[in-house]
Write a structure and sequence with these properties.
By secondary structure, the chain is α+β, with helices and mostly antiparallel strands. It is built from 13 helices and 6 strands. The chain has helices spanning 4-9, 14-22, 27-40, 56-65, 67-76, 81-88, 90-102, 114-117, 162-179, 197-202, 208-213, 226-234, 250-260; strands at residues 121-124, 127-133, 148-153, 187-192, 217-224, 266-273. The protein has a 6-stranded mixed β-sheet. The relative contact order is 0.11. InterPro entries: GNAT_C, NAT_N. Residues 121-272 form the GNAT-like C-terminal domain.
């Protein structure tokens, strides 16, 4: 049974903790996901491909049930408690985002949390990093197929100030050699609409977002990501109600204005050397 302190460390607010405690899970469905998680812990290199419950609230219960398992793995790697809990606290963060999007206890991104629960993904200061291997069909400049690198992910936890980003990258440079020495990493990559050239060229060049995006050298072919721009800016989906979206910030106006002008937001690829 999850304790009140564990809920706090996992980032739950009161509303989601109360909802999780009140929910009656499907025991068989929860066990199926929990068994898959336990079998995959420590098998690093790619994102898990699990059978996910139709009702994501069952996924939440499976994550709660397997906290001791992933915590034991973190301990076996010598990962400090603060980093372990900060990483697993993305569960509570994703619940908050889902509640803000849908207005109720839910977990839209329940598949995403599997990366934390098998030991692939870690929160180090402002950013998160996923340990994975380069594949032949998704090459990264300056790396070889099979080489280990870290993928950068940007949680919604505050501003991307250069100081916080510098500190996070420094933590990553120290964390992975110390706790995963058999997986040497020299490169980080990013796939995000935040490095769409249109965004980088049309926001103020001294903005935190642009300074962050300019750290990465572009490569590969961008993907159309209209919904990503809408979702991550406004926490809603679709383009049917553009006139109802807030236009309080330059970013909000830029996102809506490009779509109204017939443009399409894209997620680009970028890399940097650690």
């Amino acid at each position: 049974m999850t304790t009140a302190e564990e809920y706090r460390l996992l980032g739950f607010d009161d509303a989601d903790r109360e909802a999780a405690e009140a929910f009656t899970p499907d025991a068989a469905v929860v066990k199926d996901l929990a068994d898959q998680i336990r079998a995959a812990i420590g098998k690093l290199g790619s994102e898990p491909e699990f059978r996910m419950p139709e009702d994501a609230r069952n996924s939440v219960q499976a994550y709660l049930d397997t906290v001791p398992d992933i915590r034991a793995y973190h301990s076996s790697r010598g990962i400090p408690d603060d980093i372990s809990w900060a990483s697993l606290a993305d569960l509570g963060q994703q619940l908050k985002v889902s509640r803000r999007t849908h207005g109720e206890y839910s977990l839209e991104t329940h598949w995403w949390l599997t990366n934390f629960w098998v030991g692939n993904l870690y929160s180090l200061g402002r950013l998160q990093y996923m340990l994975f291997q380069v594949t032949e069909d998704q090459p990264v400049p300056g790396t070889e197929t099979g080489e280990w690198i870290i993928g950068v992910h940007i949680p919604e936890t505050g501003p991307l100030t250069p100081e916080l980003v510098d500190d996070s990258f420094q933590q990553a440079r120290e964390f992975f050699p110390r706790h995963f020495p058999e997986y040497p990493v020299k490169t980080a990559n990013l796939w995000s609409w935040l490095i769409d050239p249109y965004l980088l060229d049309n926001l103020p060049q001294d903005s935190n977002m642009v300074k962050f995006g300019r750290r990465f050298t572009p490569y590969g072919t961008p993907n159309d990501s209209q919904d990503s721009a809408i979702f991550f800016t406004f926490r809603t989906h679709g383009t049917d109600h553009l006139d109802e979206l807030p236009q309080d910030t330059r970013l909000q106006r830029l996102v809506v204005g490009r779509i109204k002008d017939g443009g399409t937001w894209q997620s680009g690829y970028g890399y940097l050397k650690l």
